[in-house]
Amino acid sequence: MSALSQKHLLGIKYIQKSDIELILQTASRFKEVLQRPIKKVPSLRDITIANLFFEDSTRTRISFELAEKRLSADTINFSASNSSVKKGETLLDTVRNILAMKVDMVVMRHSSSGAPVFLSQHIPASIVNAGDGTNEHPTQALLDAYSMTEKFGTLKGLRVLIVGDITHSRVAGSNIPLLQKMGAEVTVCGPPTLIPKHLPELGVRVETNLKKALQWCDVANVLRIQLERMDIKFVPTLREYSLFYGINRELLDSLNKQITIMHPGPINRGVELNSDVADSGQSLILQQVENGVAVRMAVMYLLAGRE
Ligand code: CP
């Protein structure tokens, strides 16, 4: 198989296990390219990609831009903060105007869940969801999967813990279906107010005791509290959250095993993760960022359908 089953990457829930496998295999080839002295291939020459960021980003935006440059695509970058969105232009008008300039693919981050799906129903270009509200962040889940596969060889049977603000996390929203499709076991841990009630029905274990949860897992993917998405208080204070759900060196050393720590970034150091863990040999955080470029190259290459 050498083609994705979908024209867009809107979310992990819309793609099949075979799509995930194809993306991860293709990413391995691009990772090899990225180790060469000349890190550029002509794969997407003459393809124009618009990076539309309606919400802030550091890692994802730079990673997509770099992946596009490595593939020799032509790129245009749009940030809502300095655009005519500020003058009241709608999402659809903004995108239709950009597409009128002959754009082939759109990478979009938006604060509204479902914005990429909405757009896919109205425009002909392929869309890559770079994170929509509290819904999905599919390329983050793919790069997380790539990083875990690189470390453990397979996702099948791997025990993955996702810790933190599960309710507001699009990273959890994509990681959970991906891990389940690939045969990993998934547990979530966090304050009960930040864990969606329906997760056990989806086969996800819930554990509110962090030490027990860490004792169980091979990998802990640690998420930040998304204060910007909360209109009410879900935890009394960040200090209290950190006391019960923060991961520090003392806690990891008290386990009778060595686990791997991941985090999608940005980290709130001293809240969900202490520096003595984030910057340690147990952490895959910077490998995740590195792998993100190869994974995004794979996604855009496969969506462009180039031989
Ligand atoms: N992981 C992630 O999506 O980070 P950014 O918000 O910086 O893109």
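^ phosphoric acid mono(formamide)ester complex. The longest strand covers residues 126-132. Residues 57-60, 131, 137, 140, 264-266 surround phosphoric acid mono(formamide)ester (CB under 6 Å).
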